[in-house]
């Protein structure tokens, strides 16, 4: 169905209000099955003038100015790389009957590229966020390249923007799924799948809450590339780490919470429910002969589940006290989060 205005579709208005800086604290929930007024519409095989059948073409059609723009995407599989680079805020929302549940997503964006055929890792990205104030809702973003022994880097989402929110999205790849590199980012109630270094980047402040993180095979969940004592940090609170439904057998005993790509790597996992069968050392060095552990802060608080049952952590990792853990919150990581984060996707504080 195609309604000119959303019916009982309050969620669709949230991004408009957020970019105006309104304080939104109540929960709207529900469906998102029609475009908000003024949205650019993307629909498979559309023949309606002004609509797009290609998501990249729709994004490229947005005015290059500071206005806020919304792209509404009807169910379908869309192929090709998409770059977001205009200066004004952009919201992309996928059709869904339950905006809080990634399992009900109906929109997929698919691309297949790896470092073997691209000039840089970033350029392999299926969706590349190159500007600020971007919000993504209910989108499945895949890089279907798969596995390779060398040059297997294949990014689903490359995030180089400030104030970027990822809400109930699913990101799929094997190596380097999520490049969370520059800016302040939140990833909320989403699904992130991969095997090798699949949440990585250099400088960003990234907050993850209520996500399911799925390991497909041997490798590290995070690879923080922090190279000096800058503000960069990855804070995880109340996420689940599982073995992906179609994980390779080598997922057992060969998954680690992270390894330091940079020797100031900084990653905090709080209140994580871990069923993926982690290697008992939990954290890994970068490489034999190049451990990169000198200045790292690789920390946990209240990890639970069978995945950490026989843990024997290395001396370069940290287990936080409750008082120390309390210092790593969304507010401490991103003090202005109330100005731009969609609070509907935050878990109630406990
Ligand atoms: C557009 O598609 C609809 C249904 O898919 C069809 O009824 C209509 O005739 C088409 N219009 C044009 C201009 O092709
Ligand atoms: C995205 O940006 C890259 C690098 O500038 C370019 O090669 C590619 O064609 C762009 N893709 C689209 C769909 O515009
Ligand atoms: C966009 O992001 C920039 C950088 O974070 C910020 O200063 C600006 O206020 C934002 N603009 C809007 C309209 O949200
Ligand atoms: C992706 O592209 C590679 C070549 O670069 C090809 O070998 C592979 O089969 C493709 N995978 C899919 C799922 O299309
Ligand atoms: C894990 O298993 C997959 C599938 O057999 C294989 O492609 C990959 O190279 C393995 N990873 C490691 C680190 O051995
Ligand atoms: C890193 O920078 C912070 C903030 O500027 C400072 O408080 C801290 O002491 C520095 N850490 C090291 C090890 O230099
Ligand atoms: C844990 O990882 C280390 C380092 O990769 C490896 O040598 C060891 O065999 C793994 N543990 C198990 C039980 O497989
Ligand atoms: C530990 O984490 C779990 C979620 O994995 C949470 O339900 C529980 O309240 C946390 N306990 C403490 C003491 O924070
Ligand atoms: C940490 O452990 C490694 C390997 O087990 C050991 O070589 C090193 O001396 C230890 N470092 C400290 C500071 O205890």
Which bin fits the share of residues in helices? under 10%
Beta-strand share of residues: 25-35%
Provide mean pLDDT, rounded: 92
The hetero molecules present are: 2-acetamido-2-deoxy-beta-D-glucopyranose
Report the end-to-end length measured between terminal Cα atoms: 39 Å
Strand segment count: 26
Could you outline the blueprint of secondary structure elements for this entry?
Blueprint: H1 14-19, E1 40-42, H2 55-61, E2 69-73, E3 76-79, E4 82-84, E5 90-94, E6 107-111, E7 127-129, E8 134-137, E9 140-143, E10 157-159, E11 164-167, E12 170-172, E13 178-180, E14 184-188, E15 191-194, E16 199-201, E17 205-209, E18 212-215, E19 219-224, E20 233-237, E21 240-243, E22 255-258, E23 266-270, E24 273-274, E25 297-301, E26 317-319, H3 322-325, H4 330-333
Parallel strand pairs: 1-2, 2-5, 3-6, 4-7, 5-8, 6-9, 7-10, 8-11, 9-12, 10-13, 11-14, 12-15, 13-16, 14-17, 15-18, 16-19, 17-20, 18-21, 19-22, 20-23, 21-24, 23-25, 25-26
Residues 253, 279, 281 line the site of one 2-acetamido-2-deoxy-beta-D-glucopyranose (NAG).
Signal peptide: 1-29
InterPro entries: Pectin_lyas_fold, Pectin_lyase_fold/virulence, Pectinesterase_Asp_AS, Pectinesterase_cat
Keywords: Aspartyl esterase, Cell wall biogenesis/degradation, Hydrolase, Lyase, Secreted, Signal
Compact description:
Its EC number is 3.1.1.11. Helix content is 6%, strand content 30%. The protein is built from four helices and 26 strands.
């Amino acid at each position: 169905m195609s309604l000119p205005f959303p019916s009982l579709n309050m969620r669709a208005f949230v991004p408009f209000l957020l970019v105006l800086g309104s304080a939104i604290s109540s929960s709207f929930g529900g469906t998102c099955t029609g475009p908000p007024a003024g949205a650019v519409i993307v629909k498979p095989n559309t023949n309606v003038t002004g609509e797009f059948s290609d998501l990249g073409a729709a994004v490229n059609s947005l005015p290059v100015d500071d206005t806020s723009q919304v792209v509404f995407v009807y169910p379908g599989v869309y192929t090709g790389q998409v770059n977001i680079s205009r200066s004004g805020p952009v919201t992309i929302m996928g059709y869904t009957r339950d905006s809080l549940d990634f399992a009900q997503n109906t929109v997929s964006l698919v691309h297949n590229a790896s470092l073997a055929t691209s000039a840089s890792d970033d350029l392999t990205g299926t969706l590349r966020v190159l500007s600020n104030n971007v919000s993504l809702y209910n989108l499945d973003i895949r890089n279907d390249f798969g596995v390779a022994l060398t040059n297997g880097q294949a990014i689903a989402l490359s995030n180089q923007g400030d104030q970027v929110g990822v809400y109930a999205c699913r990101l799929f790849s094997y190596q380097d799924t999520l490049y969370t590199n520059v800016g302040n980012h939140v990833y909320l109630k989403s699904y992130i799948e991969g095997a090798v270094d699949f949440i990585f980047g250099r400088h960003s402040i990234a907050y993850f809450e209520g996500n399911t993180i799925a390991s497909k095979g041997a490798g590290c969940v995070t690879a923080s590339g922090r190279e000096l004592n800058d503000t960069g940090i990855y804070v995880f609170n109340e996420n689940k780490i599982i073995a992906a439904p179609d994980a390779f057998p080598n997922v057992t005993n060969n998954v680690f919470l992270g390894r330091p790509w940079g020797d100031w790597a900084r990653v905090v996992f709080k209140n994580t429910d871990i069923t993926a069968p982690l290697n008992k050392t939990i954290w890994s060095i970068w490489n034999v002969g190049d451990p990169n552990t000198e200045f790292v802060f690789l920390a946990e608080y209240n990890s639970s589940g069978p995945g950490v049952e026989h843990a024997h952590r290395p001396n370069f990792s940290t287990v936080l006290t409750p008082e120390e853990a309390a210092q790593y919150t969304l507010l401490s990581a991103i003090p202005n989060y109330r100005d731009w984060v969609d609070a509907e996707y935050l878990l109630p504080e406990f």
